[in-house]
Design a protein that fits this description.
Strand content: 15-25%
Largest sheet: 6 strands, parallel
Distance between the termini: 49 Å
Shape: globular
Number of helices: 18
């Protein structure tokens, strides 16, 4: 470990916020629902289609959230539930079967169909689990039909991806015998996947597979020999499902920034028994390039105070990145759910004294934010404009999910996302 330690800050082993108290809040929330995950998942799984079963409101949400991608042919739609469906005047299952048959007839390229509930079954009066099972039996082997909930009552923002990937785990084939493989879990941009594949190949780690796969037929195998790395911190249900299939998680920070990426890769390298010299040879150039890209951004961001509202569950890894690699000062790091086991390595790297909050009582947190007057506030779209009107610079947290930010090559781009609102504010004040 000495070779890698030499390239990291001297306090890399400090206790950080591992045992820090957490302010747990319950009250009014200001976050997107889990349906939003469809907007990036439909691009990732290239022959899948997402059929949201819900109201016109849900259809409008998806259309608005995906408005930036109107140049691409979408692979999602909404089966709108009308009043006559809810009143029992129509057989909802027959209606759904008819919609699915028409959809598959028009789109023969679909190989996996997700039925996504916009509300709990008790609200939409339709058991989508049974519907998916029935439709899958009818349309297999051409099309596999699965379901998950994107309900805002049951999920927040990025939990939609977690629910989707958890639905895929039971469909994954069994890894034969004791064959060992590495599974990278979490939707990543294809360019990021390709970069990681080259790094793992240089390390001699593999075979490496990704969940979700780019094609429905390429679901990776899983078994007792599977070791998995989480690429996203919001995949608690998926991790539980993989554990139940015999896979084992490799504890690691998340691959954000030069340091996070190095530690994430190093965790896999240690699991595969890769020597430190081989590890440094494979990663040094990428790490140095990332640190160089961060250097000039650090000059402008160092000392700036940042406040995180809970939104994406990326908040803790992002705060670690901003504090350790860019010299920013996290005042409060709020997250919808704090998974201490999955975030243990991240919490240990946070500067001591950072205030951690879990859940949300938006009025209370707004009061704390206004009192602190941070230089930058990371929050959802619903809070950004009001805070900007009060003179606070903001960063939309949703942009951090849509943009490729993992890995060495994206470290500079990640830093730039936080620099832009401050630069914009400085121009407006001139």
């Amino acid at each position: 470990m000495s070779a890698i330690a030499a390239s990291l800050p001297t306090d890399a082993g400090a206790a950080g916020c591992g045992d820090a108290p957490v302010l747990r809040e319950r009250g009014q929330r200001e976050v997107f629902c889990g349906l939003t995950g469809i907007v990036w998942l439909h691009r990732k799984i290239q022959d899948a289609f997402f059929l949201v079963v819900g109201s016109r409101t849900c259809a409008h949400l998806l259309q608005s959230a995906a408005g930036v991608m109107i140049f691409a042919e979408p692979r999602f739609a909404t089966a709108i539930i009308e009043e006559r469906d809810l009143a029992g005047l129509a057989d909802a299952n027959e209606e759904l079967d008819r919609v699915v048959a028409r959809l598959l007839g028009r789109r023969p390229d679909i190989r996996m169909l997700f039925l996504v509930g916009s509300c709990p079954s008790e609200v939409i009066k339709l058991d989508l689990a049974r519907a998916a099972q029935r439709l899958s039996q009818r349309h297999m082997p051409a099309v596999r039909v699965l379901h998950f909930s994107g309900s805002g009552i049951e999920t927040t923002f990025t939990q939609g991806e977690d629910a989707c990937l958890a639905a895929l785990v039971p469909e994954m084939p069994a890894e034969p015998g004791s064959a060992r493989s590495l599974l990278v879990v979490g939707a990543l941009a294809e360019v990021v996947e390709d970069q990681f594949l080259r790094l793992f190949a240089a390390l001699g780690v593999g075979p490496v597979r990704f969940l979700p796969a780019r094609r429905a037929a390429d679901l990776p195998a899983v078994g007792s020999g599977t070791r998995y790395l989480l690429a996203q911190p919001f995949l608690a249900e998926t991790a539980r499902a993989l554990d139940a299939r015999g896979a084992r998680r490799i504890p690691a920070p998340f691959p954000l920034g030069a340091e996070g990426t190095t530690l994430w890769l190093h965790a896999a390298a240690q699991e595969w028994g890769v020597g430190e010299r081989t590890f440094r040879e494979a990663t040094t150039i990428g790490e140095q390039r990332a640190r160089h890209a961060l250097l000039r951004r650090r000059e402008r961001l160092s000392g700036q105070r940042v406040f995180f509202f809970p939104d994406s569950q990326l908040e803790v890894p992002l705060a670690r990145f901003l504090a350790r690699e860019l010299g920013m000062v996290p005042l409060e790091v709020g997250t919808p759910y704090l998974h201490r086991e999955h975030l243990a390595e991240e919490l240990a790297l946070l500067p001591p004294g950072v205030m951690l909050s879990e859940g949300q009582h938006v009025e209370n947190q707004l009061d704390r934010c206004r009192a602190a007057r941070p230089d930058l506030t990371v929050c959802g779209l619903g809070l950004a404009n009001p805070l900007e009107a009060e003179g606070l610079a903001t960063k939309w947290s949703i942009e951090l999910v849509f943009t490729p930010i993992q890995g060495y090559e994206q470290a500079g781009d990640l830093a730039e996302l936080f620099l832009r609102p401050l630069a914009r504010r400085a121009r407006l004040e001139v």
